[in-house]
Every structure is written in structure tokens, then in C-alpha cells.
Amino acid sequence: MRTNRIVAASAALILAAAGLTACGDDSASTGAAGDAVTVKIGTTDADQKAWTAFAEKAKEEGINLDIVKFSEYPPVNPALDEGQIEISKFQTINYQAQYNASAGKDLRIVGSGEINILGLYWKDHTSLDGIEGEEVAIPNDPSNQGRAINVLVQAGLVTLKDGAPTLTPTPADIDAAASKVSVVPVDAAQTSSAYHEGRPAVINNNFLDRAGIDPQSSVAADDPNSELAEPYINVFTVRAGDIDNATYEKIVEIWQSDEVTKALEEDSNGTAIQVKRTKEELNEILDNLTKDYS
Q1: pTM more than 0.90
Q2: Which of 23, 125, 142, 152 counts the highest number of beta carbons within 10 A?
Q3: What confidence tens digit (pLDDT) does each residue in 196-222 have?
Q4: Is 33 domain-assigned?
């Protein structure tokens, strides 16, 4: 995910910059239990199968999702803070922490979604055999760079210097003498080019399909259950006063349903793994990361 420095703007500017449109039925429908609740939720992923399944399942549960589409990440958090939407599902904990720190806000997490596994790909190879001494291309943007390095750490290919930041390492934090490979930071879009040139590369999921790379062909990947992966859990975000809203908690539960999970797996070619963590755990991770960025 691309990291941007976010500055809160007026609601009017937010809506204009996002180029957002609402979809779905604004009027609440009536179910067996009475009038359905309408919730305005913002996302950048509304066109995915998972979101269609999500809206259908929510309607069955008496929640009418008024999905607000954003074309890019930066306007979503300010829109939530200004009340243009009620809840969002588009970002990782890491991205939210950077927003809270840079904008001086206190948006909170009401529940977890999935984590998208980040993999190391090496053309015409099915294992790490022979990789020692190779240069590995990694994304150069701050958020993905640190995570890519940790993929290599978990694979036993890179060792960090004593005292290096655990969650957000940079190439300067790598102990070259103790590592089996070196890293070459490049634009995230160029990692797939490095792969096709025969170099091992850590490649973001959104570049795999367009580059004709099988997501299941990675020779190494991060562990979604590892502490190192925690900042990259996708989350449902609300304003602080809504942290205990029962409807929003129900929305999280619906996202974790079998129907949505199946559609999510299809969208991601099996690289998205649902993560179930309590909101207390998620907000503790958020607060620790926010401190690091403050």
C-alpha cells in the first residue's frame, strides 16, 4: 500500500478530491426484525466480489450498506473524521497510525479484516536454493519497504543490526555481513520487471496479476500470524465515540462470514487471509505504531 502524508481538509474539498460516488439504496429497507439500519461506509475496493457479497450478507442481517467509493486513499480518513462517512474499510493499521500521527487525530479500530500476504518471487525457481549472494528487488516506499525487508528476515535471508526498528526497518538497518542476500529498493511497480529479468523480488499483490505472475508461486512469504505482520492487518475504522457501536461490530462480523471470505479468496487468488483480533488488541498495535510515527 502506498504511503502518503495526509493533511485534513474541509469536507467539500475531500469530496471533490476523492471523486467519490455513493452506490446502493439510501432508503432503509424493512426486514423481519423491523426497519433496517443504513450505514455509510467508505472504501477504495467497492468493485471487488467481496464487497458485493458483503453488501448482500449485510442486507440479510438488517444492515443496508451505503457504499461510498473513493478513487484513492488520502481522502478517506479525513472524510470519516468530518462525518461524511460513518465507518471505513480500506487501510492497514500501519496506514491509520501514520494518519493519526501526521493529522493529530484519534480514529479508532472497531474490528479486523484480512491481511494480504506479501511474497518473494523468483522466476523459474520453486525454492530458495541458490539464492545466496543475489540482489533482491524490494519496493522503495516507506511502508512496503519495511515489510519487504521483514519478509526476508522471516525467510532467514537478511539479518538486522542490533537496535534496528523491528517493524519499520530500512536498508540501512541491514547487517550486510550477516545476511545471505542484499536488497535493491525500486519503485513498487518495477519489482515485477526485476522478476521478469530473472532477479528475485518482493512484489505487492496488486502487481502480480497484471505482470502474469502466479500468486501461489512465491518462494517465501510473510507469516500472517507473526508479530511482524500485525501492522498490515486491514481494519474497520471509526471515530473514537463509535468504538462500541453494536451495528459497526456486527458489520465486522459479517465481513468475517463464510460468504465474504470465499469471495475475498477469489479476489486475491488465495493471498488474503482473514484475521480475527479483538479491537483492544488492534488498538494497542495502532497506538504503539502511532507513537513511533509521532
Answers
A1: no
A2: 152
A3: 999 999 999 888 988 999 999 999 999
A4: yes
